Amino acid sequence: MDVVTVERLDHLGIIAGVIKDLGIIEMIDARIIEMIDARIQPDDQEDITTGEAVAGMILNGLGFSDRPLSLTPQFFANKPVALLFREGVSAEHCNRFKLGRSLDKGFAYGCDTLFSEIALAVCQQEGVALKFNCLDTTSFSLTGAYVPETDTQAIAITHGYSKDHRPDLKQAVLALIVSQDGGVPFLSQSWDGNASDTVVFKARCEALMAQFKASEPPRYLIADAKLYTEANASNLARLPFITRIPETLKVTQPLIAQAWAWGQWQPLEETVRDQRVELCHDGMAQRWLVVASQDAWQRAEHTLANAQAKEAEQVQKQLFHLQAQRFASETEAQAALETIAQRWRYHQVAQVSLTPHIQYARKGRPTPGTPIKALQWQIHASAAADSAKIIHQQQRKACFVLGTTIPNTALTDAEVIAGYKGQSAVEGGFRFLKDPVFFVSSLFVKKPSRIQGLLMVMTLALLVYTVAQRRMRHQLARQHDTLPNQIGQPTSRPTLRWIFQLLEGINRVTFSVQGYVKIVIEGVTALRRKILQLFGQKVCQIYQISPG
Description:
By secondary structure, this protein is α+β, with helices and mostly antiparallel strands. Among the domains are: about 5-110 and about 445-500 and about 525-535, no CATH class; about 245-420, no CATH class. The chain contains 19 helices and 16 strands. The strands form four sheets. A nine-stranded mixed sheet has the order 4-3-2-5-6-12-9-8-7, sandwiched between helices. The longest helix has about 30 residues, at about 450-480.
């Protein structure tokens, strides 16, 4: 009987090839077999290793499947599983039981430890520079009732400050450190849902001190303003850091105002300038940079224009109600106006007039001799925009202050600012993890320990994604070549997500004719061949093309 079988390959060969190149399966299995399987005997239903199960979850998560991880067997139903893994592996082997056991084994080993050991090995293998290390946290909202586990090592799924703007849901918190070289993550830590950034950053600093000492310098820590607290000062004194100085500090706003008064701005770029201040704060000798940009000035101008318009409506209502009142004296009327005006942020009193209202002791038309019973005053006022206040607010909003303990001989002012702007690398990683295209509904499990395991799988997927994207961009730069972007224009820095979309429609076709079997990879156009050759030999082997 003649049979033709079509299996969708699309971009999955890139993911599988990079996973094999990096040796992620072997690294996971080596640790799990040595530490966990010696105590927990494998079950008869486990036909694949823990490393292969994790690789399957990564493929599912990066596969645009729109399926939760619990439906991984369904995801692989029409995929060339043996090509992506090894001969003998089928879709049924990635069953829910095996995935759950693999998450349990990862938790038993230590999810954060396992990820960090693998990621640091990958960074060394790929030559990822760990000079600038960006630290940040995010929260993952969860549904369902999560009962605390007896294992005290499991995180608590509970309510906390939600960065997803879903305070009604319980959550888990993930702290991530990534390299600015490609946004590759190399350290992660899952936390209770109510853990604050201040607590997380303090603990991460304590852990980083030992790692920085054991690694080759230079290593710099970069984080947002939550890093800079009085409680964390003792740790920061021993770490070379770059951070944004909180605006809530008493010294920040006067420093910005003083910088505008000095006017000694140093141009860094066409629209960015800064002023340096050497000072000692929280017991640390530091270099603070007041940074201003034309873009921030324009944003502040737009923000203040809207705020001024809203306040103008309120001011008119306040003055309308004020003129309806009567006061016993001119002084009392002026005081009432001053009380109102003190609350104005963008306006000032423009004109004031007082009108006396005489109340006579007798009814009827008053004569010059009619006695006066009372004299009351009515105040009429108008307001105008206070340009001085507006300029002051605009100057404040157009600036931010960076602080660092790194000497100027190690990093210039421009390099400090560029290093801080690289903080977007970790923010991009969080956007990736939360994108519904990837890992949709992946956190629908009920054990907190397995939530930690899934967070590890998600960060491993981010590791694979960023390494593959970094490889592709480095190859394009090395070849001085480009690829078409979404509107057909050439770009040397395409996103891997766009590349995945370009590879949709590649299939593995198997022809079985009278006992003769032939396998063909169908849909590899010239552009797709060019793309695939950027990822190395193992990827080319999967797609049956020459490395180029």
